[in-house]
Design a protein that fits this description.
It contains twelve helices and twelve strands. By secondary structure, it is an alpha/beta fold. The protein has two domains: 187 residues, Isopropylmalate Dehydrogenase, CATH 3.40.718.10; 133 residues, Isopropylmalate Dehydrogenase. A twelve-stranded mixed beta sheet has the order 3-4-2-1-5-12-11-6-7-10-8-9, with helices on both faces. Helix 8 crosses helix 9. The protein is globular. The chain starts with 9 loop residues before the first strand and ends with a helix. 52% of the residues are buried.
Length: 346
Amino acid sequence: MLPQKSRLPRVALTLGDVAGIGPELIARAVTDPRLGLWCQPLVIGHPETLRRALRQIGSTLQVAPLASLAERAPAAVSNCIHVFNPTDDTAVDVPLGQLDARAGRAAYEYLVAAARAALRGEIDAMTTAPLNKAALHLSGLNYPGHTEILAEECGVTDFGMMLYLPHGDRVCSPQGLGVVHVTLHTSIRSVPDLLTTAAIREKIGLIDGYLRRIGCAAPRVAVCALNPHGGESGLFGDEEGRIIAPAVHAAQAAGIQVQGPLPADTLLMRAVGGEFDGVVAMYHDQGHIALKLIGFDTAVNITLGLPIVRTSPSHGTAFDIAGQNRADPQGLMQAIRIAALLAESR
């Protein structure tokens, strides 16, 4: 690892569900020389779990436990990564590739510790390795995922998950392309009843604010229709005129450059082509499928509306390849880079 500069943001990396590929991803990230150019990294998780992952990838990087996240390690440390463990040893022996309540509980503890440290100003940003929602539930934690836990910890109700693709490859907007979702981890059946004009207006404001924060002076935002062909003038549903259009009009009246509701099948293509900088999708797969087809390995999740910076890769725990030296850290590295950039922009 390259020596780190004290001016770089301090970014915490959570191990996520230790039965999945999170530990391997983190091990590969902290041994990548680019990391020391972007941030001062530290890991939140069990030191022995990280040591095992480092051995797995053949690294000699040393693990140095921290007594607390308030403890500031020396800025320039060679061949060493600092780790803080906020919980006990329960999850150390969790078998790879299997659902386990102990792993679900530990992933929650790692996440909460990072969020609280960020709120206290002990870290500047956090990047989270994947957790498993079923393992969370097995441990008695009935959260849909990272986003909802973080919103609760931060005490916010106006929040959203944005899937972001940086500029390059097939994404033509110079700011990259962000897609924020009005509903997230819920059934398709429940989506129409969960949509409200107020929620859609909030998400338009969130993505407009994010784009301005990263230097886009006049963001171009588009809002997806819910139904095929934009509802076909009510033939396929009335949510477009009854719920979505009023939110767009309210945002326009507030000075936001926004269009919609537009048919989603062509809107995402237009956005990738550079016509829009941000998109508001009505539900998870409406935005995720398009962006993951384009850039699965580079897409980054960014939680909007929080008083802290949180990013993550867009993939899951990948139990099927855990412990096999097959995990690709490209998405995690992109998430860490974006977290560091967002921390600096604050």
